[in-house]
Specification:
The complex is a heterodimer of chains A (about 110) and B (about 850).
Chain A: H1 8-20, H2 26-37, H3 43-56, E1 59-66, E2 74-80, H4 82-101
Antiparallel strand pairs in A: 1-2
Helix pairs in contact in A: 1-2, 1-3
Chain B: H1 12-20, H2 23-44, H3 46-59, H4 75-93, H5 95-123, E1 135-143, E2 149-152, E3 155-156, H6 161-166, E4 171-185, E5 188-197, H7 201-204, E6 209-212, E7 222-225, H8 227-234, E8 243-248, E9 251-261, E10 274-277, E11 291-292, E12 294-299, H9 303-320, E13 328-335, H10 336-339, H11 356-386, H12 389-397, H13 402-439, H14 451-477, H15 481-486, H16 496-529, E14 539-543, H17 547-558, E15 563-569, E16 578-584, E17 587-596, H18 600-604, E18 608-611, H19 619-624, E19 625-629, H20 630-635, E20 646-647, E21 652-659, E22 674-678, E23 686-691, H21 697-711, E24 720-721, H22 727-775, H23 780-817, H24 826-853, H25 856-860
Parallel strand pairs in B: 5-10, 7-9, 17-22, 19-21
Antiparallel strand pairs in B: 1-2, 1-12, 1-13, 3-11, 4-5, 4-8, 4-12, 6-9, 7-10, 8-9, 14-23, 14-24, 15-23, 16-17, 18-21, 19-22, 20-21
Classes of the chains: A alpha+beta (about 110), B alpha+beta (about 850).
Chain lengths: ~110, ~850
């Protein structure tokens, strides 16, 4: 297995997939990212991260249905694995811990 | 968003994606891109969404997604980078061969780029017109007199008018009628083509305007100038609201310039010169039978189509009731963006386009040059591989697999081709495009922002790289490491037969191109020297438009000291002819007829070979005298001119004399029967002035035009020199000639490079043998024979086969387009053979020079 650390963008994608719950697929992830973070990630960047996250074992994919706006192409859904959820929790804990160590920022 | 509102994303990006992206990813990624595209169209707008779509496709150019790269082994990337370095090093260490191969490929690719620009014009024809799918042209289905159906661009005038009232939803229509008018601005008086259109014309067709706006046509007193017409009348000045006058049907109509269009793009197949509101057209709204050149509708609502279907029966009946020449059986609509793809020809179509066969010709030539270049490259790649045998042996012993070696060679090759493509772009930009622009009235430019261009370049480079690299890669990688180190691996031993055949084909093609080039050059010389059958020099022709003009100007011209002689005519050779119907065996056949004054034959120096000239003192000559040409005598088999009268429906003519055949039309056409009749100045309209040989023609012409303007300021001076009448023809003929010369030069260069590569490969293989022979005292002549015999045989065979084929093709082509062309004889054959042998021998000679200079001791040393 590859290294288990999460890049910033990877973390964002994992979070968005979590937010989308069972409805996370490429285009939905992109539009969520655009709406929530004001970034305009390229399809290539998103798919390359998805690909890496699957390899790290944080994501599972399953084939879904197609819709009119996909002009007949099928969706591939991504779901968090237990390892993926774990990784998110760990990153968050680590962040919170480090955050609490910063003396000049008040916790509120 | 409702489903029927989906805007389809452009196709190109997806094609590119499918080309490089792993198959298992394509479906998912495409779906995501389309969905994201729709989302972005809604939130960001169409153009931003398109832009982001292109970016997305390029963003997929990542190792994990590209076909053929196995992500599990990330060493591949490092490897590719290493191969890239190797390519650069290879180029550096073999400067000469690399330069030759890059130059050859670059030259071929630059030709392909120019041909691509041509193809782009044809493929993207009229694409600057917006909403082309909503614009529809009405076509009529008609029958000609022999009962054959044809599709006609012309439609009756009334077709839009009643339709407009029944429509619903947004709808616009315009008629487009070609005509001409005398246009006057200050001193400038020119007869110009004009187009009568309805006021919505500019709303339908989105021509770019540099001055004024679309509403210009709403006022009938305003006209819209094309860029060309505006420069003609106003130079680079600011023409908006300036006054002009149109002389339509002899009436002076003052108008102002309401708008000026930008210069039309190269790919326009639909344009205009001067747009005039159709209310000024004196022939409209008169009768149901009058026709307009084209009728266009613009609508979004498909229900208009149903209404069109239901009303067209009435139109057919209405039109046919006027008893027209061609009966119409129905009307149909064709979308503007479909017209360029229409497989059939629309007769009299104003949205003309290049024949699709031109496109095939372009692809054929591009492919041919690329083929020659690839073949050369294969040769050179093989030659340079001999220098890398040890490297290959080493890599193999260290455990490199065959596929790794193939990968290495292929990727090196593709890198090289990408360099070549870029070099080709530079060659095209600085050399080839200026040359082509000097041939054509078009103005080619490379649009470096065009995605199509970059995709084309990339695909060409990839394709060339694969085609030219596959064989050398497989060949080189198949060597056995043991054999290499033992020194017993013989290079180029097995598949040389295929190479020789390729070489033969390549030289055959080159010969064909050279042959056609030389035939065309000879032909244009031949035609320029060809006698026109009369003396065309120093002859001014001045057409006039009415009786008083004719008499006054004839009088004026006769006072010029440099005018030797004056004749007059109603019909004149090369300008205008009428026809009489001759009855032979109850069948009428029309014959070209010129009505001329009595001294016309003398003034033109037409050669009278039998009988006598007109006599203007004989009333009978005016009444029924004819002078015919030789073709007439042959066509109607007249044995004796005095006894065989010429009979028409209402008259019997006598043949007074026979003149030698003369060219009344350009050399595309054969000479047919023609006759002269005597006419007097009461009907003649043209003045023919023979100028003294010593006079300055340009000055005389200028003087005449000045006198004309002062006498008739409202009419254009249309005088011309008789020697200029085929200038357009010569210009047209020079285009294929120039292109062929250019292609011939390029293919000679490419083929010589290829032959050079092949011969030096053979020499490298035999260097030891040659060295021993040299040491033992063999002469260069002997060495030449033993090294070059196989090539000389194959080249001779190829030339022997190519000669009759080229002869047949070129002769056939010239026969088809030209009634009068140079005979394909030794004057064409010898120079072609000479040129190609020169190329072959100089290439071989260059190699032998290397052998002659080489030191046998060096070559025989064990390395």
């Amino acid at each position: 297995m590859k290294g288990t650390n999460l890049g910033e963008f990877e973390e964002l994608i994992l979070l968005v997939i979590g937010v989308l719950d069972t409805n996370a697929y490429g285009a939905a992830i992109i539009s969520q990212l655009e709406e929530q973070t004001d970034r305009k990630p390229s399809v290539g960047a998103v798919h390359s991260s998805l690909n890496r996250l699957v390899e790290k074992g944080y994501l599972k994919s399953r084939t879904g249905e197609s819709t009119a706006s996909r002009r007949g192409r099928r969706k591939i859904y991504y779901d968090l694995t237990a390892a993926g959820q774990n990784a998110l929790i760990k990153t968050r804990e680590m962040r919170n811990y480090l955050f609490s160590l910063i003396p000049n920022i008040s916790a509120e | 968003m409702k489903e029927n509102e989906l805007i389809d994303p452009p196709e190109w990006p997806f094609k590119l994606l499918r080309f490089f992206c792993k198959e298992e990813l394509v479906e998912q990624v495409e779906g995501d891109m389309m969905e994201t595209f729709d989302y972005r169209v809604e939130t960001l707008g169409l153009s931003k969404a398109k832009w982001l779509l292109y970016r997305d496709v390029f963003s997929m150019l990542r190792p994990f997604a590209i076909k053929g790269i196995n992500f599990k082994n990330s060493n591949n990337i490092t490897m590719l980078i290493n191969y890239f370095k190797l390519t650069i090093r290879g180029i550096k260490s073999n400067k000469v061969t690399s330069a030759i191969s890059i130059f050859g490929l670059a030259l071929a690719i630059s030709c392909c780029i120019v041909l691509f620009l041509f193809a782009q014009i044809i493929i993207n024809a009229n694409d600057f017109i917006e909403d082309a799918d909503q614009i529809h042209m009405v076509t009529s289905k008609a029958k000609n007199q022999s009962g054959d159906e044809f599709i006609w661009g012309k439609t009756p005038d009334f077709i839009g008018s009643d339709f407009e009232e029944q429509q619903d939803g947004p709808f616009m229509m315009t008629r487009y009628t070609k005509s001409s008018a005398v246009v006057r601005h200050g001193d400038i008086v020119i007869e110009e083509p004009i187009e009568y259109v309805s006021e919505d014309f500019l709303n339908i067709f989105s021509f770019e305007l540099t001055d004024g706006d679309k509403s210009a046509l709403e006022k009938p007193t305003q006209i819209v100038l094309s860029h060309k017409a505006a420069t003609k009348f106003f130079g680079e000045g600011y023409p908006l609201n300036k006054e002009l006058s149109l002389i339509i049907n002899g009436e002076n109509v003052p108008v102002t310039v309401g708008a000026v269009a930008a210069k039309f793009p190269n790919n326009t197949y639909f344009d205009f010169n001067i747009l005039v509101n159709e209310k000024l057209n004196p022939t409209t709204e008169s009768n149901a039978g009058s026709m307009t050149n084209a009728t266009f509708f613009k609508f979004k609502n498909p229900s208009i189509k149903d209404q069109f279907e239901s009303s067209q029966k009435n139109w057919v009946a209405m039109y046919n009731a006027t008893d027209p020449k061609y009966k119409i059986s129905g009307f149909s609509l064709i979308a503007f963006d479909e017209i360029k793809n229409t497989p059939y020809n629309i007769a009299g179509n104003v949205v003309g386009r290049e024949n699709i066969s031109t496109l095939y010709g372009i692809i054929f030539f591009g492919g041919l040059l690329l083929f020659i270049a690839c073949f050369n490259y294969i040769n050179i790649a093989l030659v340079s591989a001999t220098k890398r045998l040890k490297e290959i042996g080493m890599r193999k012993s260290l455990g490199a697999t065959k596929s790794q070696l193939i990968n290495q060679f292929l990727s090196e090759n593709i890198f090289l081709c990408i360099f070549s493509a870029l070099a080709g772009l530079i060659i095209a930009q600085i050399a080839l495009i200026p040359i082509f622009n000097s041939f054509f009235p078009l103005d080619f430019t490379i649009d470096f922002t065009s995605l199509q261009l970059w995709i084309f370049l990339f695909v060409t480079a990839l394709f060339t790289g694969l085609i030219s690299g596959l064989y050398p890669a497989f060949y080189v990688s198949s060597f056995n490491a043991n054999e290499i180190f033992k020194g017993s691996e013989k290079l180029g031993s097995n598949k040389n037969v295929i190479f020789k055949i390729f070489l033969g084909i390549q030289f055959g093609f080159t010969f064909l191109i050279i042959f056609s080039g030389i035939a065309f050059i000879n032909n244009s010389h031949f035609q320029k020297e060809l006698s026109w059958g009369y003396d065309n020099s120093n002859l001014m022709v001045i057409p006039t438009s009415n009786k008083s003009q004719f008499l006054a100007f004839k009088d004026k011209v006769s006072q010029y000291p440099e005018v030797k002689n004056i004749a007059t005519a109603a019909g004149h050779v090369g300008n205008k002819a009428s026809s009489i119907d001759i009855v032979v065996n109850d069948e009428k056949s029309p014959v070209l007829t010129y009505d001329v004054s009595a001294n016309y034959i003398d003034l033109m120096e037409l050669e009278l070979i039998e009988g006598r000239n007109f006599d203007q003192n004989k009333a009978s000559d005016f009444d029924n005298g004819l002078i015919v040409n030789e073709s007439f005598i042959k066509k109607y088999m007249i044995a004796n001119i005095e006894n065989d009268p010429v009979i028409t429906a209402d008259k019997r003519y006598r043949i007074l004399g026979v003149v030698e055949d003369f060219h009344y039309d350009n050399f595309y056409f054969p000479i047919d029967a023609a006759v002269f009749r005597l006419s007097s100045d009461t009907t003649n309209t043209m003045i023919l002035a023979k100028i003294e040989g010593t006079a300055d023609l340009a000055e005389t012409r200028y003087k005449m035009s000045k006198d004309w303007v002062s006498l008739f300021p409202d009419y254009p001076f249309n005088g011309y020199l008789q020697s200029e009448i085929f200038d357009d023809y010569y210009r047209q003929m020079s285009i294929p000639t120039n292109i062929l010369i250019l292609f011939a030069t390029i293919s000679i260069i490419l083929s010589s490079i290829g032959l050079y590569g092949l011969v030096s490969l053979a020499l490298a293989k035999k260097m030891k043998e040659i060295s021993i022979r040299k040491v033992m005292g063999a002469t260069m002549k002997h060495i030449t024979i033993i090294t070059n015999k196989p090539y000389l045989i194959i080249l001779s065979v190829s030339l022997i086969l190519a000669l009759p084929v080229s002869h047949m093709l070129v002769d056939g082509y010239l026969d088809q387009v030209n009634a009068f062309h140079v005979p394909i004889d030794l004057r064409v054959i010898l120079p072609s053979i000479l040129l190609i042998t020169l190329a072959i021998f100089s290439t071989i000679g260059l190699n032998l020079l290397k052998v002659a200079k080489s030191r046998p001791a060096e070559n025989l040393k064990e390395r």
